[in-house]
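hey so u asked for the seq, here:
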Amino acid sequence: MTTWEYATVPLIVHATKQILDQWGSDGWELVQVVPGPEGNGIVAYLKRPKP
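ran it, structure tokens below
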């Protein structure tokens, strides 16, 4: 059975692609993007298999 580790990452609107590309190159998979706390910005939830 695969076990996962998770990360939450605040996204900067003008750099979203670069941020997600960097995390993706480190093995993270995007799960969901949601509004940040109190509607400020956006936050990405990512996962990857634990080593």
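The CA atoms of residues 30 and 46 lie 5 Å apart. The chain has a mean pLDDT of 95.
lmk if thats what u needed
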